[in-house]
Design a protein that fits this description.
Blueprint lengths: L37 H14 L6 H17 L3 H16 L6 H20 L5 H26 L5 H20 L3 H13 L12 H24 L3 H20 L8 H20 L3 H19 L18 H27 L3 H7 L8 H15 L3 H17 L5 H20 L3 H19 L8 E4 L2 E4 L7
Antiparallel strand pairs: 1-2
Helix pairs in contact: 1-2, 2-3, 3-4, 4-5, 5-6, 6-7, 6-8, 7-8, 8-9, 9-10, 10-11, 11-17, 12-14, 14-15, 15-16, 16-17
Length: 470
């Protein structure tokens, strides 16, 4: 199972008089923890010594276990941190002086610690399942305790704590095959962290963190809606994100900026364009792609070290799957070599190729290059995939270019080529290919038709019924 690194919703409250337990600064981004050192080891020993004292009350012991859990997290000793949190929760539950909000925070931290454990890398599927179950159980307990606390007091910070759990859990569900649950959790979380009085309780830095994490959650919501084929909802969820980038762009000094801002903005434009494309709103899709291309031209081309998105390269292929793909590649490479030799023997290669055209307009060249491009994409070889997508396009645009079916398939090839270019960091050319795909889809299908919901019926292109998943 591949675990994706999430942007975590962690707000460190610095309000005067705020109890430490209300949100301790456990930053959960992997790699941010400091290395184990003698001081932290000494601190753990000191706490363990204090815990051995029989005179401590339940609440005093619990506070020490919470501190101990933090030290274990710092040392990446997540199993020990989990045990310490669990012990603290048991002690607080046995203490009549503790309150629901306090225990809710500990359950939230327990769930986040399970998440850190999952992100640390594990191969045993049964352990992953068990830890995921424990993680969600902890978050559910946290939300239940927060809801109970909110029934007795109106507090924007309490709502924000509840929202943080919903958003983090929603983003995880979206990324791990539960888009409906993810969508619902993110909507719930967003509804609880929009109190207009929050600036009175949070510092400017905390408000910026809150905004960035809300934007991250909206991005995940748009992904969830996309998986559920609710493209209108995906666009709506993306709207606050686009408004943020547009507003930031107006006030930025482009001579001093980090190119990652423009890289990320362009990526959001690309996502917006894809949603418009799937709604059949081709003009809007082309505008979004053109905006992405403009951002790449002006800001990203000069920064070749800007991180690239490698959707295909990040696929987790096991050894057996990769071997099977390589076998197919060798098979089709051999077939393509024989085919090229036959073409060289003919006086009119184009005539020879068209004589081997199928009823739908496919030729041997189309099929071989298209199949090899798909295989190289699966094998995480975008450079070789690009070569064969271009070769397949050459066949489609030189042989019967006005054939409706071939023109439609050429649009598919332009789109696939765009993906391979994107994975290589050739962003500007990638957007050009997407725009070409849009133009062909628009010409063949007309406005309002989702090209991904079309199929062949004889020699015709028909629109399939949309699946309603929300």
């Amino acid at each position: 199972m591949k675990l994706v690194h999430l942007l975590f919703f962690v707000i460190v409250l610095q309000t005067t008089g705020t109890p430490q337990w209300r949100r301790r600064p456990f930053f959960l981004v992997r790699g941010s923890s400091v290395q184990e050192n003698d001081d932290s080891s000494h601190q753990r020993q000191e706490i363990e010594h204090q815990l051995s004292q029989s005179s401590l009350s339940n609440s005093e012991q619990a506070e020490l276990y919470v501190e101990l859990a933090g030290l274990h997290q710092t040392a990446d000793s997540f199993h020990e941190a989990i045990k310490a949190f669990q012990q603290a929760i048991r002690l607080y539950d046995d203490d009549d002086s503790s309150n629901e909000e306090h225990v809710a925070t500990l359950y939230s931290d327990l769930g986040e610690t399970y998440l850190m454990l999952l992100l640390s890398g594990v191969e045993d599927a049964s352990k992953v399942t068990n830890w995921e179950t424990a993680m969600h159980d902890a978050w559910e307990q946290s939300k239940r305790r927060y809801r109970s606390a909110m029934q007795h007091q109106e507090d924007p910070l309490l709502s924000l704590q509840y929202a943080s759990v919903c958003l983090l859990q929603g983003m995880y569900c979206t990324e791990h095959g539960e888009p409906m649950r993810g969508w619902e959790l993110i909507q719930e979380g967003q509804a609880h962290c929009s109190d207009p009085s929050l600036p009175m309780f949070l510092s400017e830095e905390e408000m910026r963190n809150l905004q960035h994490n809300r934007l991250a959650a909206w991005t995940y919501a748009s992904k969830a809606a996309n998986v559920l084929r609710k493209f209108d909802a995906a666009l709506q969820a993306l709207q606050p994100v686009m408004e943020y980038y547009r507003g930031e762009l107006e006030h930025r000094d482009t001579t001093k900026d980090d190119p990652m801002f423009y890289h990320d903005y362009a990526g959001q434009c690309l996502g917006q364009g894809d949603y418009y494309l799937q709604l059949g709103q081709y003009n809007q899709a082309k505008e979004s792609y053109a905006q992405a291309m403009q951002l790449y031209q002006k800001h990203c081309v000069e920064h070749p070290n800007a991180p690239k998105l490698h959707h295909t390269l990040q696929r987790a292929l096991d050894v057996g799957e990769m071997e099977a793909i390589q076998e197919q590649i060798l098979l089709f490479q051999g077939a393509l070599k024989e085919y090229d030799e036959l073409l060289q023997e003919e006086g009119e290669p184009a005539k020879f190729d068209s004589s081997h055209e199928s009823a739908l307009g496919f030729t041997v060249g189309d099929l071989l290059h298209g199949r090899l491009a798909s295989l190289y994409t699966s094998a995480s070889e975008p450079v070789l995939a690009e070569v064969h997508w271009r070769q397949a396009l050459l066949f489609f645009t030189t042989i019967a270019p006005d054939n409706k079916i071939r023109k439609y398939l050429a649009a598919e090839l332009h789109f696939n080529l765009s993906q391979s270019l994107w994975e290589q960091g050739k962003y500007e050319e990638s957007m050009k290919q997407r725009i070409l795909a849009c133009q062909l889809y628009q010409e063949i299908l007309g406005e309002g038709v989702n090209p991904l919901m079309t199929r062949f019926d004889g020699n015709e292109i028909v629109v399939s019924a949309e699946d309603t998943m929300m």
